[in-house]
Structure prediction request, 422 residues.
Amino acid sequence: MNITKQLMQQIIARTFLVISSLLVNICLARFTNAAEIGVLLYITAIGAFIVLVGGMSLESAFTYYSVQKAISKKQIITLSFWQLMGVIFLLILVQIFFPQYFENISHNYRVSFYVFIAGTLMTNYFTAALFASQHFILPNLLQTVGNIACIIFISILYFNNKPAQVLFKTYFYFAGLNGLLLFMALVFIKNEQIFNNQQVKNKQLIYRYALQALGANLLFFLVYRLDYWFVQKFTSATDAGNYMQASKLAQIFILIPQFMAPVIFNASAMKQDNKLPVFINTIIQLFFLFFLLVALLLWLFGNAIIIVVFGNSFSKVANVMLILMPGLFFLAGLNLLSAYFSGLNKISINIKGAAMAALITLVGNMLIIPYYHIHWAAAITSFAYAIAGMWSLYHFKKMNVDVFFFKKLDWRKFTLFFRTKY
Prediction:
């Protein structure tokens, strides 16, 4: 398939998904307040950590071996459900033997928390498998429909005077529904070019690759979410809600590279063309201009727009987002480069960069505890993103790619790459 078609399918489909996810977020924010949203985002961050560690990043291995045409659909589904049942079983043990600890991490949501974990795991596994099979529209479409249904249900509940806890439970249940829809999609699709009867005979290879990816993903998770724990502990509930909302909104601006990452991974893993580094280089150059423009607009109009959309209790969101912008530029490039290095099976580069960023995040937040403020927290997070991004750019440049310089030749190679088929 032409890479232009792949990218456009992924970007357009994911854009609708992002818009629907943003509308869910806006509904929940308008129907509650900054302090309550802060609790929800904190719970989902804990859930994401459980999914990351318990799920072992198997989705990375599924993608890699699917692109290599070395794994069957049956094997993906079987391994996914064994892993899912293992995670749920361990959570049940925690609830039985450490009930107070379980209540602290689930905030008394219990069943809906289990559903959220299971749904997120299925979404990760089966979305990765569908992307690897070059189905970029279907998983995004299903999740978009799920989000729209979630908005409708949440709105009905709100206008029937249901409390925030009921709205949040509904949100968790729809995460489970999304996972089931993606499972059914994977079961019924037919794509023998990718999914055949061949299986990875040595399952250790799958888990070895997954564990390497887990190391990088776990470190990146600490970079993305470690600040949440400090903010939750050392600031007020309202400030914590503002910071987490700003962090969540800021992630929107790195969604385009995240959309492109599966396509970059596939092209890198296939190793069929030497123009891919030039393509990535040019995209990073465009990101620099994009984030410069976003920062300017945010500085001029951000606060007014956010207050109108989310409400007066979110008055500190714009400033936090503005501080995060420099780091987000490097994070955007890092998403592409991580996919590129992973496709080449050079995950160690990602691990080392993430380790440096995680260390900066941890030490930086600890140092500012005596005078902790969400603006200082944002500055440390932005700096950590920048270090991780510069580490990957350094290794990318070692491959004889000129980074950050606009050249006419770059644009010619860029257009030629778009016509390359994979």
